[in-house]
Amino acid sequence: MFRFTTGIMLFLVFFETMAQNDLGTKPRKSQLVVRLDNDAFVSGRQDRYYSSGHYLTFYHYLGKGKSLSIGFGNQIFTSDLRKELEPEEIDRPFAGVNYLKFGFQKRKPGIVTEFSLLGGVIGAKSGVGQFHNWYHDNFGFPRANGWENQIDDSFLLNLNLRASKSVFRSGNFEVLADGLAAIGNLEQSLSIKPSIRIGTFEDLEFSQINGSRVGTRNRQEQYFQLGVELKQVFFNRTIDGELMNPELPPEFESQNSVAEVFGEFILNYNHFGMGYGIYYRTKENESASNQVFGRITLSWLF
Disulfide engineering: 182 pairs with which of 27, 133, 187, 249, CB 3.0-4.6 Å? Predict the structure, then answer.
């Protein structure tokens, strides 16, 4: 994984160097963003719960502050793989998710809103469990004991609403607040995410902090963001969903209140952007514990 990510970064840096002469002032209209979440991106063996996520999203600027996005997402959830647990002892359900996500963003000075619709599949038909076993078998990791009783197959449909606001800005310092709502059969939740950032950055509506820089005329951002997301969870199918064999213990129920603390560095240049963050998440169900994972973001603006 490390060699693969390093190879992508070197590839993008090469093309960034080749593109340095293209520094016109017209706005960039498209951006491709790769996001990788993995507990292997932090020191020590974490290997539990939200094990990894892989996301590829294309953004396109329509003009007048409007943009569209389409993306693919893949998520892997497991029990604590640092322990050899029998099926009745696992502390979090195994679950695999694949989905497509379509979004519309409205960007105004100091505020950005987004509406997105997610459609996908969870369960054995997603193929995530087979992929996870293949990866562990071929790269020297022990096979996880639990995919045979993962969250059962289901088609997913979710509507997600997000609003981001610049609360205060003075020079190279900014205070922001995000509000998020999820409605559907994958997740039902409400959350608020206050954060600060320090450095050189674009106005909120054209900054990578909102997922993409499409529409920007400036080309560089270098900042550090620190924040916390406080979430009230009403339903989380990766925990509350029915297992393939619901008669086998244990039974799981998601925690109503979850918090996630994060710190992330973002470096964006003319075309190429990258970021690295560390995320700490409180336990999502009673028998589990907290977890830490890393996030790598790579992007190309054109």
Answer: 187
- Neighbouring C-beta atoms of residue 249, cutoff 10 Å: 10
Please list the residues that pair with 202 across neighbouring strands.
none
The pTM (predicted TM-score) of the whole model is: 0.89
Residue 103: closest CA among 165, 33, 51, 153: 33
pLDDT for 247 equals 76
CB 94 within 8 A of CB 243: no
What does the alpha-carbon distance between residue 107 and residue 112 come to, in Å, rounded to a whole number?
Answer: 5
**Closest to 47 in 3D by CA, of 17, 71, 80:** 80
Read off the amino acid at residue 116.
Answer: S
CATH 2.40.128.140 fits 2-301, yes or no: yes
The percent helix, strand, coil of the chain (3-state, each to 5) is: 15, 55, 30
The pair of structure tokens assigned to 261 is 């603390």
Average pLDDT over residues 265-278: 96
Report CA torsion sign: 1, 102, 160, 78.
negative
**Which amino acid, residue 259?**
A
End-to-end CA distance of the chain: 26
67, 60 Cβ separation under 8 angstroms: yes
**What's the pLDDT tens digit per position in 47-97?**
789 999 999 999 999 999 999 999 999 999 999 988 777 767 789 999 999
Distances 7 to 54, 89, 141, 268 between C-alpha atoms, Å: 17, 39, 23, 18
pLDDT digits (tens, 9 = 90+) for 148-199: 889 999 999 999 999 999 999 999 999 999 999 999 999 999 999 999 999 9
